[in-house]
Amino acid sequence: MTAVLKKISTDMLNTILIIGVILLIIEIVFFNGGLIFSLGFSAVLVYFGWKNYKPVWRKVLFWVGAVSFGLTVLSMIAVRFLVLAILFLALRHYYKTKQHPEKVQVERLDPEWADPPGEPLFTQKFFGRQTTPPHSYPWQDINVHGGLGDRVIDLSETVLPPDESVISIRHFVGNVTIYVPYEVEVMIHHSAVIGRSTIFQFKKTKMLNQMTFYQTPDYQKNKPRVKVITSIFSGDLEVKRI
Questions:
Q1: Measured between alpha carbons, how far is 33 from 30 in angstroms, rounded to an integer?
Q2: 80-112 pLDDT, tens per residue?
Q3: Are 133 and 157 in contact (CB under 8 A)?
Q4: Which residues cross the membrane (predicted)?
Q5: Which residue has the higher pLDDT, 200 or 104?
Q6: Per DSSP, what are the bridge partners of residue 177?
Q7: CB burial class (10 A; 0-12, 13-18, 19+) of residue 2?
Q8: Do 49 and 76 contact (CB within 8 A), yes or no?
Q9: How many Å apart are CA 133 and CA 153, to the nearest integer?
């Protein structure tokens, strides 16, 4: 399964995730509103059974709740869709490896991985793609929450202040791309539940639960400099020189 995940693009996983959420909402709203009650009741049984697991009746309570919770989850249309999607992707990966056997390569790890007045550059937008303006624009620090869609930030079209600038993005599903001029120093703190990251010439291929730190060698002594803090549930981070 890990090999399959490494070959799947984050965009495809995001599509599967979004379809699963939509199916879950449709099922709860139009077909089976009692799902929430069933899941909640099962969770309560599990909680009280696990809280004091020693007595026999608590163990019975826990396992009744756990089995009930599992059966309820497996009966959901969204979960069935996700299972079928994973099976399809696994079969497709198997077929591709039969046609084109992959070569095993050793991955090299680098030790470096370890608001002004006016309109904001980004708004709190749940759906859709957002980018900085395609023309010159006055710089403002970015602190934004996102839902679904990509975020593109191009620092080559603005003049950064002489001190430190901050870009903070907390995003649900979608890719984040940042273009940085060559003369700008960068510090990056990145975390993602699902997704990969590429920062200049460094690439991380780990798909799940990724945490990344990168800092250019002269960040502490040269200016201008930008601190980038990104937190994504599912999506790729790409930082490029321009």
A1: 7
A2: 887 787 778 777 765 665 565 544 333 333 444
A3: yes
A4: 16-48, 60-91
A5: 200
A6: 152, 238
A7: exposed
A8: no
A9: 9
* Element housing 85 (H / E): helix 77-99
CB contact set of 168 (below 8 Å; sequence gap of 6+): 141, 142, 143, 144, 229, 230
Residue 222 Cα to chain centre, angstroms: 31
Q: How far is CA 25 from CA 32, 33, 129, in A?
A: 10, 10, 23
Nearest to 48 by CA among 66, 63, 62: 62
φ, ψ (nearest 5 deg) of residue 144: -140, 145
The secondary structure element, H or E, covering residue 148 is: strand 142-148
Model pTM score? 0.57
> What is the distance between the alpha carbons of residues 78 and 25, in angstroms, rounded to a whole number?
9
Dihedral sign computed on CA atoms, order 199, 204, 207, 211: negative
Query: How far from 61 is each of 34, 46, 64, 105, CA to CA, in Å?
Result: 21, 7, 5, 49
